[in-house]
Amino acid sequence: MRVTRVQAAAFDPGAELAAFTASAPDAGAVVSFTGLVRGQDHAGQPLTAMTLDHYPGMTDAQVAAIAEEAAKRWPLQGLLVIHRFGRLLAGEPIVFVATASAHRRAAFEAADFLMDWLKTKAPFWKLEEGPGGETWVDAKAEDDAAAARWE
Amino acid sequence: MRVRYFAWLRSRLNRAEEAVAPPPGVTTLNGLIDYLATLSPGHAAVFEDRSVIRAAINQVFADLDASFAPGDEVAFFPPVTGG
Predict the structure, then answer these.
(1) How many CB pairs under 8 A join A and B?
(2) Helices A141-148, A104-121: inter-axial angle, 10-degree rounding
(3) What is the rounded distance in angstroms from the CA atom of residue A60 to the CA atom of residue A54?
(4) What SS3 state is found at A24?
(5) How many domains does chain A have?
């Protein structure tokens, strides 16, 4: 199965992983990644929440296209991407990626690729909230460099 | 035509979208930015450094030298920071 979900609702990474694993009974390897809202910004200042802005319409199409690219590059028996938008509290899961394949390397690489491309090619923007107010997060050069590895 | 803004462009312009009527002859995103920057000091400030501006035409990423057609959905936003 190849499923991508862009949603405001919270999700349970454990339950998602269990259901995903059950959906890929022939796989020899399942890799998952859960991204959490950090409790600190890059300067070490506390963060209380983060709001994910996105481009409705474009977001779903881009996330689906990124998943399709992963499925083209690696022999996957399953792929799941969940990305939230809206306001999330520190500690909440924000993104979840799972891949299933016959062998571990394809599953690891595809998950790594999905995260790199989600960070740089899916139209989401992060607004951090802390005691000092609200700040839009700047894109990072290292994320671009990580994504460029797969070109 | 309708132009959409996201993230800090939307915050700083205090609007998510607006209807604009660029003069005939404005056919590229760079040309559209030149026109938008004339609308108000706020627009001029937001579009001052276009190296930090990204764009989409009809919900597909586009370079600023790309051409758009009347009726296209054009959006401006900063580099993305999802994940």
Answers:
(1) 74
(2) 140
(3) 10
(4) coil
(5) 1
Establish how many alpha carbons lie within 13 A of residue A120's alpha carbon, considering only the half-sphere containing its beta carbon.
18
Per CB-CB distance under 8 Å, the chain B contacts of A123 are 6, 56, 77, 80, 82
Distance of CA A99 to the CA centre of its chain: 12
Return the residue of B nearest to A141 by Cα: B79
Token output for B25: 């002859």
Round to whole Å and give the CA distance between A80 and A16: 9
pLDDT digits (tens, 9 = 90+) for A28-37: 999 999 999 9
What's the full length of chain A, in residues? 151
pTM here? 0.94
pLDDT in tens, A57-115: 999 999 999 999 999 999 999 999 999 999 999 999 999 999 999 999 999 999 999 99
Cα separation of A131 and A133, whole Å? Answer: 6
Determine the structural domain holding residue A145 and report its residue range.
2-149
Tell me how far the alpha carbon of residue A51 is from its chain's centroid: 15
Those residues with Cβ within 8 angstroms of residue A35's Cβ, 6 or more apart along the chain or in another chain? A93, A94, A95, A96, A115, B83
Which domains occur in chain B, in start order? 2-77 (3.10.20.30)
Q: Can you tell me the distance from the alpha carbon of A111 to that of A81, in angstroms, rounded to the nearest whole number?
A: 9
